[in-house]
Amino acid sequence: MKVESFIDPYIGQPWSELGVKVMSSGPQVAVTLGYPAASLTPKLAQDLRAHLQTDALDLDLKFSPPAGRGFGQVKHIVAVASGKGGVGKSTTAVNLALALAHEGAKVGLLDADIYGPSQGMLLGIPATKRPEVQDEKFFVPVKAHGLKTMSMSYLVTDKTPMVWRGPMASGALQQMLKQTLWEDLDYLIVDMPPGTGDIQLTLSQQVPVSGAVIVTTPQDVALLDAQKGIEMFRKVDVPCLGIVENMSVHHCSNCGHVSHPFGDGGGARVATQFDTKLLGQLPLALEIRELSDAGRPLLIDQPDSPIAQTYLEAARHLAAELWRQSMSGAGAGPTISLTDD
After folding, report:
1. Contact partners, residue 285, CB within 8 Å, separation at least 6
2. In angstroms, rounded to a whole number, what is the distance separating the alpha carbons of residues 199 and 114?
3. What is the rounded distance in angstroms from the CA atom of residue 335 to the CA atom of residue 153?
4. Which helix (H) or strand (E) holds 59?
5. Which of 22, 144, 172, 278 makes a 20 to 30 Å CA pair with 4?
């Protein structure tokens, strides 16, 4: 058995077919994957020992992102979207961004929800915080928990409503996207506003988006809107990397009873219908809401909790799918297609 014949746990193909770089010297084995998985090193080392039928193996796991489709030094732009509000999209976006950073990637987070920005609060950024300006036209991203971030909430107060027409909101997005000094990023996670409108089209037109993640709940009405979100991104040739299902299950803290208050299996059905992945299922849990309201993302406050591990697993699946699609040439470049129907 060779290291190269090992089946990748996230893509399901041998590393030899994926072009994984492997270097070995005695028991020392260095493996470079196309997705970040730093915390997975002990488990992968154990699986590799079993694969090679040896106890003598010391794994050095490295990460090299696939060739980028982004702009400047930003390699990949990933939109986190939902067909409707109230499904936990922003909470998912921030925890996925933090999970990718935790696994070893350089990550930025752009809050593109111009009318209702929330990432500042979710990250615990003081309401008075303003980004520095360089050369009188470039924003210096606000750093939080290892992320480079930008949000409309840094530019206005929480009592200032964005009473703007679509073109004004689109212009604000373009300014934050292109006039922020993101520098070298493996992934820029974009927290999109809910729905399928001007902001989504502006993002697709202005920069090459590598992929989209759709956030939903198991409710039928939310799933219908999630399907619209997938179809919208397909119309602009942005591949769907997968679905995250929030409020999937409830575990009673008193008796341990498991229930599905919003339905069961909806996210998996939509993923199968649209030939995409179910990246993860998050429970309906009080701590997610409490920590979000307190500005302490769950992945930072409780990194070893089962919920944090679910976010990490979803982030690895997301990045692995992006790697797989990059190798297969899926989503070669977004174009706008308009129809009369």
Report:
1. 250, 251, 307
2. 9
3. 30
4. strand 58-63
5. 278
Angle (CA) 185-187-191 rounded to 5° is 120
Longest dimension (CA), the chain: 65
Helix segments in the chain, DSSP class H: 15-18, 41-52, 89-102, 119-122, 166-178, 198-206, 220-235, 266-273, 286-293, 298-301, 306-328
* Cα-only R_g, the chain: 20
Expressed in percent and rounded to 5, the helix, strand and coil fractions of the chain are 35, 20, 40
pLDDT tens for residues 49-85? 999 999 889 999 999 999 877 888 999 999 999 877 8
Reference 35, options 183, 214, 186; nearest CA is 186
- What are the structure tokens assigned to 237, written together? 């040739």
Single-letter residue type at 281? Q
CA distance 337 to 73: 28
Residue with tokens 């920005």: 117
∠ CA 14-16-21, nearest 5°, is 120
| Beta-bridge partners for 143 | 148
- Bridge partners (DSSP) of residue 2 are none
Per-residue tokens: 264: 């069961």
What is the DSSP code string of 258-315? EE-TT-SSHHHHHHHHTT--EEEE----HHHHHHHHTT--HHHHSTTSHHHHHHHHHH
For 93, phi then psi, to 5°, come to: -60, -45
CATH T-level fold of 74-328 = Rossmann fold (3.40.50)
List, by residue range, all CATH 3.40.50.300 domains of the chain: 74-328
Q: Convert the pLDDT of each residue in 95-147 to its tens digit.
A: 999 999 999 999 999 998 887 788 999 999 998 899 999 998 899 999 999 99
